[in-house]
Specification:
Number of domains: 3
Organism: Xenotaenia resolanae
Number of strands: 4
CATH architecture of the largest domain: 3-Layer(aba) Sandwich
GO molecular function, one term: helicase activity
Strand content: 5-15%
Keywords: ATP-binding, Helicase, Hydrolase, Nucleotide-binding
Protein name: ATP-dependent helicase NAM7
CATH class of the largest domain: Alpha Beta
Distance between the termini: 43 Å
Number of helices: 8
Radius of gyration: 23 Å
Shape: elongated
Order of helices and strands: HHEHEHHEHEHH
InterPro entries: DNA2/NAM7-like (IPR045055), DNA2/NAM7-like_C (IPR041679), DNA2/NAM7_AAA_11 (IPR041677), P-loop_NTPase (IPR027417)
Helix content: 40-55%
Structural class: mainly alpha
CATH superfamily of the largest domain: P-loop containing nucleotide triphosphate hydrolases
Strand order of the largest sheet: 1-2
């Protein structure tokens, strides 16, 4: 939008706009944001960010919540109430749960994620069987303790060390 670009450039150069230019700038920016969101194939945001008024009237076919076991149930409900036909929760209820600092809230059940609640209610999650993030010697412990020995290694010890030596940042991510 040429007019929006012109006003942005003026704002960058002068530091501020006149009252009328500021109103016009905000209106053009809202229009551009709405157009961008309406034409997007994928919109990424946090669960709470899904409650942004700019998304309020949008309909989504699918909602995917990554690390859903680390979110409180009310957090997960923010995108859920947008009315998608498909909800995909990704996470591992055997790992970190939601961080709830208030003891009353934790005692009231907010330290249980929506993912874990659904598992308790009998919905069986699909579990990935192969891990690529840990050295095989390290993966034996969680495999045996949390996953009935079913966790398989996607890399050998030698291959893991080769990858980590070539990409030291991989060690920090693991």
């Amino acid at each position: 939008m040429p007019e929006l670009q012109k006003l942005q450039q003026l704002k960058d150069e002068t530091g501020e706009l006149s009252s009328s230019d500021e109103k016009r700038y905000r209106a053009l920016r809202r229009t551009a944001e709405r157009e961008l969101l309406m034409n997007a194939d994928v919109i990424c945001c946090t669960c709470v960010g899904a409650g942004d008024p700019r998304l309020a009237k949008m309909q989504f076919r699918s909602i995917l919540i990554d690390e859903s076991t680390q979110a409180t149930e009310p957090e997960c409900m923010v995108p859920v109430v947008l009315g998608a036909k498909q909800l995909i929760l990704v996470g591992d209820h055997c790992q970190l749960g939601p961080v709830v600092m208030c003891k009353k809230a934790a005692k009231a059940g907010l330290s249980q994620s929506l993912f874990e609640r659904l598992v308790v209610l009998g919905i069986r999650p699909i579990r990935l069987q192969v891990q690529y993030r840990m050295h095989p010697a390290l993966s034996a412990f969680p495999s045996n303790i949390f996953y009935e020995g079913s966790l398989q290694n996607g890399v050998t010890a030698g291959k893991f060390m080769l990858v980590c030596c070539k990409h030291p940042s991989y060690l920090l991510d693991s």
